[in-house]
Every structure is written in structure tokens, then in C-alpha cells.
Amino acid sequence: MEQNYKLTLAYDGTRFYGWERQPGRDTIQGKLESVLTELTGKPADVIGAGRTDAGVHARAMTASVVLDTDKTPEEIRDYLNRYLPDAIAVREVKPCSLRFHARYNALGKTYRYTCFDGPVKPVFDRRYVTMLDYVPNVERMRQAAEYLRGEHDFASFCGNPYMKKSTVRTVDTIQIERRRDRVIFTFHGTGFLQNMVRILVGTLLEVGRGYWEPEHVSEILAAKDRKLAGPTAPPEGLCLMKVDY
Asked: Which of 103, 155, 222, 229 is such that its CA lies 20 to 30 A from the CA of 1?
């Protein structure tokens, strides 16, 4: 009998080509579907809460999948963890309503972006931080972030130039804090456009290094032109922390 399951998983995205399945390339969705197909003998269609880019990590990505199996949720979890690559871990498998859809039912997401600007390179977490060769001014970046909070048209911060759907999104939290030799950005919003968090970080860092004044960010936002925003920050510093339902 078919049952819908909600999966919570963590992954190190370093060697993967992002979430979405791609022929001939290792992706998170592709690996999950491959193992679940082996488990049930039927093609599995795993739906993710979002589509993380190549090289981006997750601590708690949510996915949903309908399976026809007599295994318990714990047995499904254990099977997945036995056969998935070491860089992917399924933390929890829970039965849920057939109506539950990991993407459409998501109410919000929390992302964290970590930069390192210390004098000695971080050996053990180097794959999870973006290395900076300057020390950004956190207070200037906080001032700039105030212009980005709330509901806006974030077209200037969208990496897809052919986006046909609305680029209006609500970002209700942007926290920027220093923890010793790291600068940590935390974003919470109802949803994010392609590359949006990385472009927001790249833009805020331009303010932090003194290239732009904080108020210039409001002009970038109003222009709705990707070419006017900062660079897309590298993927390794980004991690999906949580999905709200």
C-alpha cells in the first residue's frame, strides 16, 4: 500500500551538482531516488523543499516521497543510510498525509552563510566556509541589510535572467554576526530565488569592504537589474539550516 513519507536529511554538497537530478551527474535527488528504487523495485520520485545549487550544503533539507513498501520508517531510514554516499545522511523518515508536498507546503526557510577572514586557514571546516582576503565591516553590512528586509521585488538578486514568475519575496530576518574569525549571515524568508542568498551575501560584502555605501543597496533593489548587484558568493559557505511547515 502506498504511503507518503517526509524525509529530513543532511548533506555535504561539495562534490554534488546540486539537488536536482541530472543525467550522468551526481546529485542529491538522484542518489536518493536511485537507492529508493532499489528498495521498492519501483521508480521513486523524491520532491525536495527547494533546489540547492552545486556545492551548497544542508543540515535539514526536507523531502517527500510516496513509497510502496512494508518496511517501517526506521528500516527505510537505515536502508537509505546504508547505501547512500557518506556525504548524505537521512536523519528522519516519518509517514505523512498523501497531501503533504515538501515544496508547496513549505512556509519558510533558514539559510546560513559563513565567511572566514582569520590569519590562519581553517583546516577542518574549509569546505564549509568562504575564505575572504579582507576583513568586512559588520556594522556597515547590518545597515545595508535593513534595506533588504521585508517584502520586495528581488529581481536584482535573481540568478535566472529568464525568470517568468514573480520575483517578489519576503525576507523577514537578516542577521550578521562576528564569531571570532568568522562572519555569519543568517537569512529567513518565505522563499528564495535562484542564487538569491549568495547574491545578497556578495552584495553585502561589497558594502562591508567599503566599495559601496549601505544606502546604495536600496538603489540596487529598486533597479531590478541583476547586473547592478554584487557578485554571486561562492557555494561552499552556504547551508540550508531549516524548512518551516
From this structure: 103
pTM of the model: 0.93
All structural domains of the chain: 2-96 (3.30.70.580), 108-244 (3.30.70.660)
Q: Which of 235, 237, 227 is nearest to 51 (CA)?
A: 235
Phi-psi domain of 238 (left: phi exceeds 0; alpha: psi -120 through 50; beta: other):
beta
From the CB of residue 178, how many other CB atoms can be counted at a distance below 10 Å?
Answer: 14
Rounded Cα distance between 90 and 203, Å, is: 34
> Tens digits of per-residue pLDDT, 167-212?
999 999 999 999 999 999 999 999 999 999 999 999 999 999 999 9
Please name the residue ranges forming H helices in 53-119.
Answer: 73-83
Measured distance CA(185)–CA(204) in Å, rounded: 10
Q: How many residues comprise the chain?
A: 245
